[in-house]
Amino acid sequence: MSDTTATAGKARGRFITLEGGEGAGKSTQQKLLAAWLREQGVTVVETREPGGSPGAEQIRDLLVTGEAGRWDALTETLLHFAARRDHVIKTIEPALARGNWVVCDRFVDSTLAYQGFGHELGREPVDKLRALVLDRLMPDLTLILDLPVADGLERARQRATSTTAAEDRYETMDRAFHERLRRGFHEIAADEPQRCILVDAAGTAESVADKIRVIVAEKHEDTLS
Ligand code: TMP
Hints:
Blueprint: E1 15-20, H1 26-39, E2 44-48, H2 54-64, H3 73-97, E3 101-105, H4 108-118, H5 123-134, E4 141-146, H6 149-160, H7 175-191, E5 196-200, H8 205-219
Parallel strand pairs: 1-3, 1-4, 2-3, 4-5
Helix pairs in contact: 1-8, 2-3, 3-4, 3-5, 4-5, 4-7
């Protein structure tokens, strides 16, 4: 699955993920980044987790709706990895093999932060499943949008009054959960500094997008002029 060769002699695409807690602005940043990459002549596939393929979107419905305590932490982790497996096989790998760049709203770091740290499942089960399900596939670059928990939840609350009110299962977890998951993202960034960059997500969407463009341009200067 993590074969680095690409089809028809085309260079394999790049895999960029956006991570962060509730209300960090990932979806907005995903759109702005994808638009900018297209201006640079890159073909971009925008996708998300949980979801990103028809089968994974069905699993998403089980994960983001209903009671906060609906699943135990391991069951929930297995569901996220089941969705991820389908997403990788059906959407991500084919796109990378075509030479497209994939910009994904959340990936495996969310499982470590939410289930591993937030639900206190720990690292080990997540790492084992990652090895089994993803083989060696990992993002080339992960941008972790960082915001104090209170600010993120307030942004998420405002957004929920409009379009996503039904998908609020994780937002209803208690404050300590959100603090643990923020700490988790900080640890992930510290553990893998080559891949993960913590981005201060306070400020306007455009100012955060500027910071992200600089990071992506630096990381991929071999392809982006
Ligand atoms: P979203 O709000 O970014 O669309 O993500 C849906 C929710 O799913 C969000 O609250 C975070 C949660 N989630 C996990 O708990 N573990 C995971 O592995 C992923 C991908 C998402």
